[in-house]
Amino acid sequence: MQLDQRKVGDALIVTPLEDRLDARIATDFKEQMSELIASGNTKIILDLSKVEFIDSSGLGAIVSTLKRMGGRGELVVCGLQESTMTLFKLTRMDRVFQVVADEAQAVSALGGDKEG
Fold first, then answer.
1. Does any domain span residue 114?
2. d(CA 66, CA 77)
3. 80-95 burial string, b = 16+ CB within 10 Å, else e?
4. Residue 8 counted as domain residue
5. Gap between the Cα atoms of 103 and 43, Å rounded
6. How many domains does the chain have?
7. 115 alpha carbon, distance to own chain's centre
8. CATH no. for residue 60?
9. Residue 25: which domain range?
10. In Gene Ontology terms, what is one molecular function of this protein (predicted)?
């Protein structure tokens, strides 16, 4: 699974470059996110703007990422498309995760700035 990564200030923006976050790639996604957290990233923005479909495995991998942070950092989700936002609302994950519209709002939510 391809993940685009870039830093904005002290926040790491991670964008999955797949249109589906499903059982086929959930384990790989979870492992890559765990490595990013283990290497010291404590402010992560998960930009799901390219993801059109998330199944229970994909959602589980995102939840696992939040748990892996263990309260020692922040994870903000942005860029949800209508279908993925519906899933977040149905599963009440919109109450578990900080969900914002776009990257700029996510950077602001983490207290970062656009300089970087």
1. no
2. 11
3. bbeebbebbeeeebbe
4. yes
5. 13
6. 1
7. 21
8. 3.30.750.24
9. 3-109
10. anti-sigma factor antagonist activity
